[in-house]
Amino acid sequence: MNFNEHHHCLRGTHLKTQGCVVGKFTVKDNLPAHLAQGMFAKPGSYDMIMRYSSLTPKLLPDNLPAPRGIGMKVFGVEGEKIWGEDMKTQDWTFNNYPVLELRDPQTTYDIADSLERNWNNLPKFAEEQSQRVDADVATLGGQLPRQHSKPATHPMKSSTNKRSKQRKLTRIHFLVVAMPEYSQAAYRYGDYVAKFGVFPLSSEQKALEHTAIKDDDPINIISQEVRNFHLAHKVTYSFCAQLLQDLGEQPVDDIGIEWDAAKYPFEQVATLEFEPQDSWLPEFRVWWDDRITVNSWHGLKTHQPLGSTNRMRRVVYAESRKLRLKVNGYTDYVEPSSLKDVPTHGGIKAPQLELPFQPAVTSVEAAA
Questions:
Q1: Which of 119, 152, 239, 302 lies at a 20 to 30 A Cα distance from 345?
Q2: What is the DSSP letter of 261?
């Protein structure tokens, strides 16, 4: 549908790139047996790439409320792959809130049908979601304030209706590099099952937790603030596993129910590190937008995605990718095998243009 507006086919989800970076994914030493699983069984350091994004159905201004996410591709990961290909890569995807409204295939179909019918009337789409039985979760993404990242949240007390369990929102804002991220769905974790979280580590990142987007901020404020921060700082995150311990309280098949992190804590298994760099290189960004894909089914069998929503994604994401490539004139996607395949060293920087009549940050201002 977005092709008719942009004459270019964009992703069906997380379509707005906010930055692309290169870094290191380092598995911790001396992990206990329950955490030393899959790609985390042995300590080691891997090259990786990561993309910041906004989850909106269309290309919308950054000063509108929307979820934010990250997708990452880790290189050099040995082991048997789900799809049987020989590329030694492991993909991970995250959103900045711990539950997802697409909690099962039927719910996903209903929400997608509503979006298609109301493509040119998004307020009507939002109204239909607010009338759902599970409206508290179905409207969660739209309740997020105008943020660089995510609002702080607190678990609701137990409810007799499992489909109504979710987090209440408070109005605290974060810069995108300071936001926590969640896998939302569960994955196999070697001999165990787990969800994952990515959390900011550096003091510079944590200091930005209360930075908010204002109504009159430029429409591209997120991508340019991400660029500013990555140019000036080393950015670090912890990569954590939250193990399944009680199916009664930690359902796998309904990702609209949060696993209580106070009772079932996230445990760090790796560190993500990004040296200072330009996160807005045109060649890198466009290559990621048009040529590659990040899919949680692309990885080790020991980290197979679980649950009905993930099984649906295996089919839908593949078909969506095929259609997007075909419409944009490509015969197939690119699967990079290492950093040598990533276009980050061409010397092409974002054009430095003054845009006096546009409500956007110019690259001149961003680089200042």
A1: 239
A2: T
CA-wise closest residue to 342 among 127, 39, 85, 72: 72
Counted residue by residue, the chain has a size of 368
Q: Compute the distance between CA of residue 276 and CA of residue 229 in angstroms, rounded to an integer.
A: 8
Most confident of 97-106, 165-174, 195-204, 284-293: 195-204
Could you give all domains of the chain from N- to C-terminal order, each with its CATH number?
3-367 (2.40.180.10)
Tokens of 181: 């991220």
C-beta separation of 314 from 352 below 8 A: no
- By the 10 Å C-beta count (0-12 exposed, 13-18 middle, 19+ buried), 347 is classed as exposed
> In angstroms, what CA-CA distances link 311 with 5, 226, 297, 317, 323?
30, 33, 9, 10, 19
What string of H, E and C letters represents the secondary structure of 122-163? HHHHHHHHHCCCCHHHHCHHHHCCCECCCCCEEECCCCCCHH
Question: What is the percentage of the chain residues whose pLDDT exceeds 90?
Answer: 50
Residue 7, helix vs strand vs coil: coil
pTM (2 d.p.)? 0.85
Other CB atoms within 10 Å distance of the CB of residue 110? 16
Q: Say what angle helices 105-117 and 308-327 make with each other, to 10 degrees.
A: 40
Buried b (16+ CB within 10 A) or exposed e, 81-94: bbeeeebbbbbbbb
Which residue is listed with tokens 């908010």?
212
DSSP-assigned letters across all residues of 305-338: B-SHHHHHHHHHHHHHHHHHHHHTT-SS-----S
Helical pair 105-117 and 122-130, crossing angle rounded to 10 deg: 140
Beta bridge partner(s), residue 182:
95, 197
